[in-house]
């Protein structure tokens, strides 16, 4: 049964070690899809391509990146998604082929540790955002198609190229802060909006648009960090007890507005000395507790 070239034998041995050979007729082992497929390919290549009998091909289901022909150009199988490993060599069949609108590239721009080798992965050929019929902005056609295939019942279609026009979304809201009198504090507010949004800061309970005429408060705005984003900062220098309160970031464009707020707690040195440290630690969220915008991945 194993007639693969001997150069493949060590790799096969490793894979067999990781994924014990299932009894004949059982389902292929679960585990990372690319690993399973690489494993199957090694077996298949060992057996050569043989005559193609399409009626014996399994029907691939739930292919989020569409379908491609297998190494023998015989059966359809699921193509690899954006971000999955792929074979840089077009003749290679280890990781599999990238789906529609994707190409296999070495991602040079990644945050590789020193000495790490970049791995080829499927990347979208397009970087043009588009607006889906669900009113969401997709980073490019690849993430749109992935969503459309994942929820066929949603009947997604492309409304137009460019982001959807919508009220602003706050991607990263300001975080609660405490500190002692005399220190400087900064609140940040990262907003996605198309059309472009303006950002305003106010303290709850007052109508004054900050910084007002208060010389120890300043505000700054800058486009970014991503396209169609704008970030605003509110800085309060040498905080005093009277600065305590809730500060609100308000992002507004022609279609609407969104707000997010965070509190500032000011301790005097006296109070700090009498305050339980474990209580203080619970006041400042650790980075893990930061607003989670994981689900925005496909969008902006
Ligand atoms: C999906 O689109 C098709 C064709 O445009 C239409 O016939 C069908 O009613 C739509 N289904 C839903 C749930 O909107
Ligand atoms: C208080 O402010 C100082 C200077 O702005 C900063 O270095 C320090 O980390 C802050 N302390 C806390 C608990 O956030
Ligand atoms: C707070 O405590 C430290 C040492 O525990 C002391 O040096 C400092 O003077 C105290 N500060 C105040 C304002 O009481
Ligand atoms: C500080 O808080 C911890 C846990 O919340 C508690 O066990 C400890 O007794 C407190 N210490 C003081 C001095 O209040």
Please provide a written account of the structure.
There is one protein chain. This protein has 300 residues and is an alpha+beta fold. Among the domains are: 130-164, no CATH class; 167-275, Immunoglobulins (Immunoglobulin-like, Sandwich). It is 16% helix and 29% strand. It has helices spanning 9-18, 33-47, 141-150, 269-274, 277-283; strands spanning 67-69, 76-78, 102-106, 120-124, 130-132, 137-138, 158-161, 166-172, 177-180, 185-194, 198-203, 217-223, 229-236, 245-253, 256-267. The strands form five sheets. A four-stranded antiparallel beta sheet has the order 8-10-13-12, with no helix packed on it. It has a four-stranded mixed beta sheet with strand order 9-15-14-11. Strands 6-5-7 form a three-stranded antiparallel beta sheet. The longest helix is centred in the first third of the chain and has 15 residues, at 33-47. Mean pLDDT is 80; it is low at 1-31 and 288-300. Bound molecules: 2-acetamido-2-deoxy-beta-D-glucopyranose (4 copies).
